[in-house]
Design a protein that fits this description.
The protein has helices at residues 3-31, 63-76, 106-110, 127-140, 155-167, 191-207, 212-219, 221-235; strands spanning 39-43, 95-99, 118-121, 145-151, 172-178. It is α/β, with parallel strands linked by helices. The chain has one domain. Strands 3-2-1-4-5 form a five-stranded parallel sheet. Strand 2, helix 3 (106-110) and strand 3 form a beta-alpha-beta unit. Helix 4 (127-140) crosses helix 5, helix 5 runs parallel beside helix 6 and helix 7 packs across helix 8 (221-235).
Length: 236
């Protein structure tokens, strides 16, 4: 019986220490906003459909996501001028991390982006894992300020997630919305969808956990259906 109060005290102290750590990290991120960005994080498509643009066994990208990649490739290669509000960012010199669900970066190589500048990470299945899986690359590059580029449709949700996840690790973010042809056909993201990812990102910022694969499977069952089918085919 005496262990219960002691355990509660330990857990309370641990929770307070974690809150203080995260608060300090957010303050550091706010200061580092003045640092020059050294890495561009491009959030690619994660939706999987077997009927459009195959990218490996069971993996595909939506046409709108392909358009997003092409727009980003033109931007970081210097073939397209950046948005006026973000013209000072190092679009053609910074290291580029493409976080996607099924990209082969073909659009970037076609645009002339050097392979030494580009790192492709296809381990993400949604917006939150786009950012959490990219954190390893951000740390490896010793980056304190990251440019997060994604479609204008996706930007509000991506901005909220990036600020929480990267900010909780002391990394400043600048989110740049990209316009592309496929965006006109996409509906506006619902507030519920944004709120869902904000809650998950806040949980990750405080605990380092977001539910893992089971949460992703629950929220995005269609994205795992083709991956599971591909695995079954591989083992036959």
């Amino acid at each position: 019986m005496r262990l219960a109060p002691a355990l509660a005290s330990v857990l309370t102290c641990a929770a307070l220490a974690r809150l203080l750590y995260v608060a300090a990290a957010f303050r550091a991120a706010a200061r580092r906003k003045r640092d020059a960005p050294t890495l561009i994080l491009l959030l690619g498509g994660c939706a999987l459909l077997t009927s459009v643009c195959p990218r490996g066994p069971g993996l595909t990208l939506l046409r709108s996501d392909l358009a997003r990649e092409r727009a980003a490739a033109q931007l970081v290669s210097g073939r397209q001028p950046p948005p006026a509000a973000h013209a000072a960012l190092p679009w053609t010199s910074a290291r580029v991390v493409l976080s996607s669900g099924a990209s082969d970066a073909r659009a970037f190589y076609a645009a002339g982006v050097a392979s030494s500048r580009l790192l492709v990470d296809n381990s993400a299945v949604d917006t939150l894992t786009n950012v959490t899986t990219s954190l390893t690359h951000v740390r490896a590059a010793l980056c304190t300020h990251v440019v997060v580029a994604t479609s204008a449709y996706h930007a509000p949700r991506a901005a909220a997630v990036a600020h929480l996840v990267l900010g909780a690790r002391g990394v400043a973010t600048t989110v740049v919305p990209l316009s592309h042809a496929g965006e006109a056909t996409q509906p506006r993201e619902s507030a519920l969808r944004v709120a869902r990812d904000v809650v998950r990102a806040a949980c990750w910022a405080l605990t380092g956990m977001h539910g893992g694969e089971w949460a992703c499977r629950l929220l995005h069952p269609e994205r795992f259906r083709h991956l599971d089918a591909a695995k079954r085919r591989r083992w036959r």
